[in-house]
Amino acid sequence: MKVYFIGAGPGAPDLITLRGARLLGECRLILYAGSLVPEAVLEHAHPEAETFNTAGMHLDEQVALYRRAQAEGLNVARVHSGDPAIYGATAEQMRALRELNIPYEVVPGVSSFTASAAVLGAELTRPNVTQTVILTRVSGRASPVPERENLPSLAAHGASLCLFLGGNQLPQIVADLLTAYPPETPVALVQRATQPDERQHVSTLERLLSEIRVSEWALTTMLIVSPALADPDTSSRLYDPAYAHRFRRAEKEGV
Fold first, then answer.
1. pLDDT reported for residue 27
2. Is 162 helix (H, G, I), strand (E, B) or coil?
């Protein structure tokens, strides 16, 4: 018996990994975070699998299902949105499994921040612009953010910043970001990336709030702030014909 924490990806059912889809098809007990994981992802599930939407369940109720699976010798697919390592609330479940001597394995998935960059057709790391991506969020009732990770201090780096789960706090977020990023810094909102009702809005920090209705972006929204979104005229040396490395000789002498 084993529990598999499976990253379902950003929503499109064909963006789950091959391993994740295979395990969904093998496990007979499935727990999934229905508030974030679209039911379309469950098309990979075994037709006879029992499924439980954990959106309305507390931890003890989920642990009770793990105990039951242990008693019945059933493998469990625990399906989380995106990648389980990022805001997945998996640590407390893993702790409970260790106490029960139940083995578990994590199957990574496509995160919503990379999916959002993909639908924007953007690269978040550009030479001489930024080589750093910051993943963060703002405090919520369930998970406060440490003060040392406040937005103004993170924004001071001027790097690409991907902010999860903050759509309903956009006015304060923009104000905090403007303490460090220039007003003309490009930003993008992506809601439900890769899903049928996906939408996006590209703007700048100074214009964003005047162009949108905040209430329409309250849920399932990724905010990306990055000078790289401006498509600066920079290129990596990796494919420069004058750049030599162990797999390719340079075309020019002395390089």
1. 98
2. strand
224 with 194, same domain: the answer is yes
Contact 161, 188 (CB under 8 A): no
Q: How far apart are CA 21 and CA 17, in angstroms?
A: 6
What pTM does this model have?
A: 0.87
Shared domain for 12 and 51, answered yes or no, is yes
pLDDT for 24: 97
* 79 vs 143, more confident: 79
Residues 6+ apart with CB under 8 A from 63: 93, 96, 100
What secondary structure letter does DSSP report for 144? Answer: P
Nearest one of 156, 184, 191, 199 to 170, comparing CA atoms? 191
123 and 223 assigned to the same domain: yes
Q: How many domains does the chain have?
A: 2
Q: Do 18 and 81 belong together in one domain? A: yes
Tens of pLDDT, residues 85-113? 999 889 999 999 999 999 999 999 999 99
What residues make up the domain containing 162?
112-229
